[in-house]
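Hi again,

Forgot to attach this to my earlier email, sorry! This is the prediction with uridine-5'-diphosphate-glucuronic acid bound. I've pasted everything inline since the attachment limit keeps bouncing my files.
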Amino acid sequence: MKIAIIGTGYVGLTTAVVLSYLHHDVTAVDKDESKLSLLHEGKSPIHEPGIQNLLEEVWHTIRFTPNVAEAVPGAELILIAVGTPPKKNGEADTRHVEQAAREVAQVCLPNKHYTLVVKSTVPIGTNQRVAEVVENVFSERGIRGNISVASNPEFLQEGLALQGAFYPDRIVVGANSEEAVDTLRRLYKPILEQTFDPPSEFPRPPSYHLPPMMTTDPNSAEMIKYAANTFLALKISFINEIAGLCEEVAADVTEVARGIGLDARIGHRFLRAGLGWGGSCYPKDTAALLGVAAQSGYKMPITEAARTVNFRQRKRIVEKLREALSTLEGKTVGILGLAFKPNTDDIREAPALDIIRELLAEGAAVRAHDPIAITNARQALSQRDDTHDSRLHFTEDVYELPYDADALVLVTEWDLYHRLELRRLAKQMKTPILIDGRNVYSPEEARAAGFHYIGVGRT
Ligand code: UGA
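Structure tokens for the complex follow:
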């Protein structure tokens, strides 16, 4: 199938290479010249396990262009995968989605049928709005266009994007037209029937079952995306709230999570207590959902509480440090991990950034390590002039981190950190305090290595 994809961010690029791997004819459009020049050299602008190799594998067939007119007219299906950044009041800004729809409609051929699919995470009602935008352009052009608009929310998890694209739990399609549903069923046929040869880096999991394609109306499809992210966000906040109480009553939250997770109705996933969620999705989408609710005058106290609990986790870690060190003024703190989660260089809404800012504000010196996110973190922090602060240093050698430090804080649970020689770290420190913000280490192991160990929800 001939496909045009508008936007080559995490969602757009992953979708483009996966659909190209499944033998669709893909042209991806992006206006960002620096991204395009990387893509034209066959280099991925995003860090995502496996994406570089897959991009090289489909290199001879996939095309990248800044020009919608090159990609859209001949396509049967057009996917919009542009960003919906938060506005100041938290609502999602759909300007780029509407602009993309407008540009698409401007170059559509009269009388040819297209399916226009919105993959971006958008407030409920946006598909309807996109259909209106398209119709307006057609009437301005004085042509009879023929476009079916459909919602196809994306459930991609950074760091696991390709795995999730080849082996999704489900595919959700919201459309009012049978034709659009049929086109999307043809698009995803190799995934729905698992008829493709798995790439060597992404073998089919032995227990994987064929995924259902759920079809519904566009508003419900848009709501499914927000409800799914909000549910996962509140599951994490729930266990973090329990973790706080565990500390008060000398219980261990990792044991509690294991015990409740064994109940099939609850399940064990997304019950890891720690520093809570960051990234480009949960913070933005929970705020956007509250924005949608506010417009209807509807209150969502559970979603609000999930956000409060989440951002409190970051402050609690700094409080634990303050308590352990008596004061932060003049102390040196090593930060293990800057990315919002492992296997990505994404630092958007990363807990590490808030923690570093707070530590610097209280007069501490900070030394920070991350396997791949240092460049992004440095840039994000410099926007606030923090790097001009001589008290902030980044290091690429994790074993330089503890030198003369008063405490270490594990913020991101990179694999590398699971394998650290704890004894070697502890020995170099002024005071061997380890705040384990993701409960990576066993308290016994850390203590045996010489650390004063403080986890989350474990005494
Ligand atoms: C999330 C969803 O998982 C995807 O399904 C969705 O498509 C995506 O948002 C999106 O809307 O684009 P993502 O933000 O990439 O994906 O990452 P997650 O793996 O869900 O983790 C989010 C945050 O929760 C991370 O900061 C992680 O450290 C934290 N987390 C996760 C916990 O603190 N505890 C857990 O048990 C699980």
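The chain has a mean pLDDT of 96. The chain has two domains: 2-216, 282-454.

That should be everything now.

G.
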